[in-house]
Design brief:
Helices cover about 25% and strands about 25% of the residues. It is α+β, with helices and mostly antiparallel strands. It has two domains: about 10-95, 434 Repressor (Amino-terminal Domain) (Orthogonal Bundle); about 110-250, Umud Fragment, subunit A (Ribbon).
């Protein structure tokens, strides 16, 4: 179990250790007595793990401090693969819960989940909503297979709440959308998050032959399409924030 990686950051290795132990971010945080949002910020590189956090992880889970901080050595010090497997099984036993009446085994999501940050912005499915600073207010836990099927890096994704009715039939007021922030150009006709001057919109975007963008809503009777000229795309007033890859909908 020798891991020698210099490209990873400590937060990346903390995530790897958590997934090795098959702990969700929430369970990992509960075990350490910290908040899940703090774990998410550390794992995604938004903040540096404190010495106290690293000390808690090493003492609680027998993860090597040198491996966390520098990537040198082994995740579990002085262990054979068999001993490492035994450690994993021990933590799996701690996670086990009593079977219900159906006898079904519980699902352990740790290795297969990723927490997507929810930004403190409202995406307008209407005529526009003012842009605010990107403040993380919560997280959406999404299965890893969601990203794998779309060939998307979950670390590049964000989420935000939808406000308005222009995308009804597809999205309702109060739904959450997940978008790939690495997509900053129109690469295909799809649903995008775009900034138009001081407004954030979620709309269908189609690139026309002359380079203009046609912006269309789902609720076309109430919201007419409009066009953004290609020349305007060169300035700072128009920006592609990301391509929508999924949604968490609220059923009526």
């Amino acid at each position: 179990m020798d891991v020698k990686s210099t490209s990873e950051m400590p937060g990346d290795r903390i995530r790897r250790a958590r997934r090795f132990l098959k702990l969700s971010q929430q369970r990992f945080a509960d075990e350490l007595g910290i908040s899940r949002s703090y774990v998410g910020d550390v794992e995604n590189g938004r903040i540096k793990p404190s010495d106290n956090l690293i000390g808690l992880i090493t003492s609680k889970f027998n993860v090597d401090i040198e491996w966390i901080t520098s990537g040198r050595g082994e995740m579990v010090p002085d262990s054979t693969p068999e001993q490492a497997d035994a450690l994993l099984k021990l933590h799996e036993q701690k996670l086990a819960v009593s079977k219900g009446a159906s006898g079904a085994e519980p699902k352990i999501l740790g290795e297969w989940s990723f927490d997507v940050p929810i930004f403190d912005i409202e995406l307008s499915a209407g005529h526009g909503s003012a842009v605010e600073d990107e403040v993380i207010v919560d997280y959406l836990s999404m299965p890893q297979r969601f990203f794998d099927r779309r060939a998307v890096d979950p670390a590049s994704c964000g989420a935000a709440i939808v406000r308005g009715t222009s995308m009804e039939r597809l999205l309702r007021d109060g739904d959450y959308v997940v978008f790939d922030r690495s997509i900053r150009k129109i690469v295909s006709d799809a649903c995008y998050v775009i900034r138009v001057f001081d407004d954030l919109l979620i709309k269908y975007v189609r690139k026309l032959p002359d380079g203009d963008l046609e912006i269309t809503a789902e609720n076309t009777p109430a919201f007419r399409p409009f066009t953004i000229r290609a020349v305007d795309l060169e300035g700072p007033q128009i920006q592609i924030i990301g391509r929508v890859i999924g949604a968490i909908v609220n059923w009526p």
